[in-house]
């Protein structure tokens, strides 16, 4: 038999075909994988956002989460931040209805809470172990912000005052649990100290904001606004302050004292804090009530700080009050006539009344400055009503036998009702509105107001403000003489 010479040749000839087939077979799965990846790629991109949204909702509803919502990306910070800003603006508009007016000059106050949020994120980053990135901490703070804005709106609108502190505590607990779950998802370990640091910074920021009266309200009620909203410009501050003396002189010139020896009353009102309209409205209301009771209508001078207008009345400041009292004294028979002085503002136990009006530079009104202004005026007979927190602290520097002092709270207590959406504080409602018109005397009016306030505060479950009074006996007698002779 002949050797099979064709077999090797055939093998050799067929070898390339075999390798080609093998290469083709090997490449086929790769091509199929590439096609599959290409087909799936749009789907994975499309599902990225929903997965992050789902993770965010899981975190906010206190369910287990893998940290996908807290990547630290620009979107994870910007989107909830913009949502919180929109909610806050919308709620402010709703609270100012029916005649809401945009007030952009409160925007600088927003920076306080932006700074607070950044400090919370910084605390979470620095204290957490293992350390998280600052961007991730900002993502967590931003994610919680819309929920906190909604919670604040609900508490202010629907929760009774006696439950406000409890409701805020529940919100703080909720935020703490969210932080614990989020930090655990990011780091894989419990972060009790890191969470405590972040919550502590947030609570401190809120507390300081309340103490400093940081009120970032972009909407103001248009009730009784005759002038367009005016903001103080730094370049306009000096002329505005310079013209106050002339405006006070104009008001003093309009005071009319009737002829005769009988004592009459003069009213001076002082609304110190211009960023909340409640103080201006309360002083205007007090002026009307004293005019009805003690016939001071033609002898009334008002000093008003009100963000809605710089033109309606002379502005309130310690210097303006001293100047105004001297002007009023020039119209009085100071040995017989009685000054009714009503002041309304925020206060502290130094004693001190807050005096602000936009960017205008103003001194706070201390008990010493008020006593000095009254002393320099030469006015002898005085009835002084102070509606403010810690107002009772003013009694000691002001009391004498020729003075009656009525205050909305004890020196170590807060008073209530100074929200921007109100026209009167609790004390203003109880004393000026409810008690004074039908009272037999000023002492009777104060006692009735004190009782009304105590009942209201007990019902709302807040710490009693304990309004205080001092009645100089000679002043009580002089007031009785004026009331008798005026009919």
UniProtKB/TrEMBL annotation:
Keywords: Membrane, Transmembrane, Transmembrane helix. Residues 317-393 form the Caspase family p20 domain. InterPro entries: Pept_C14_p20, Peptidase_C13. The keyword Iron does not apply. Residues 1-31 are annotated as: Disordered. Pfam families: Peptidase_C13 (PF01650). It comes from the Bacteria. The chain crosses the membrane at residues 68-94, 106-124, 131-155, 167-186, 193-215. This is C13 family peptidase. The lineage of its organism: Bacteria, Pseudomonadati, Pseudomonadota, Gammaproteobacteria, Steroidobacterales.
